[in-house]
From TrEMBL:
<dbReference type="GO" id="GO:0051213">
    <property type="term" value="F:dioxygenase activity"/>
</dbReference>
<keyword id="KW-0479">Metal-binding</keyword>
<dbReference type="Pfam" id="PF02668">
    <property type="entry name" value="TauD"/>
</dbReference>
<feature type="domain" description="TauD/TfdA-like">
    <location>
        <begin position="32"/>
        <end position="95"/>
    </location>
</feature>
<dbReference type="GO" id="GO:0046872">
    <property type="term" value="F:metal ion binding"/>
</dbReference>
<keyword id="KW-0223">Dioxygenase</keyword>
<dbReference type="InterPro" id="IPR051178">
    <property type="entry name" value="TfdA_dioxygenase"/>
</dbReference>
<comment type="similarity">
    <text>Belongs to the TfdA dioxygenase family.</text>
</comment>
<keyword id="KW-0560">Oxidoreductase</keyword>
<dbReference type="InterPro" id="IPR042098">
    <property type="entry name" value="TauD-like_sf"/>
</dbReference>
<protein>
    <recommendedName>
        <fullName>TauD/TfdA-like domain-containing protein</fullName>
    </recommendedName>
</protein>
<dbReference type="InterPro" id="IPR003819">
    <property type="entry name" value="TauD/TfdA-like"/>
</dbReference>
<keyword id="KW-0408">Iron</keyword>
Length: 108
């Protein structure tokens, strides 16, 4: 049997505090502030390049209901989600966390 899954990273670009090079090896070290910023910028660039081609963008309509797996879907809030309630109406989001003992992986 061939294992066709590859490990994936699940993290929030705005809440990541550091990256570690050569983890668990004698040369292990934290990224410098410049390396840290470069890595975050490169990841974000991959997400938004080609006008966000790899992103799912939803045009919300009243009554819409979406379930998504935050660990499997790269996403970010669009600017209009930060607009005042008086301009765009009330937006209610509920978050539920489900524990899965199997680590997330990308199936090839």
């Amino acid at each position: 049997v061939i294992d066709r899954c590859k490990s994936v990273l699940c993290f929030h670009l705005g809440m990541t505090s550091d990256f570690i090079y050569d983890y668990g090896n004698p040369g292990e070290r934290l990224a410098t502030p410049q390396e840290f910023t470069r890595i975050l910028n490169e990841i974000h660039h991959e997400f938004v390049k080609d006008n966000g081609k790899i992103q799912y963008k939803h045009n919300w309509e009243e009554g819409d209901f979406i379930i998504s797996d935050n660990c499997a879907v790269a996403h970010e809030a669009s600017p209009e989600t930060q607009t005042s309630r008086s301009q765009v109406g009330l937006r209610v989001l509920h978050r539920t966390t489900v524990h899965n003992p199997i680590p997330p992986a990308k199936t090839l």
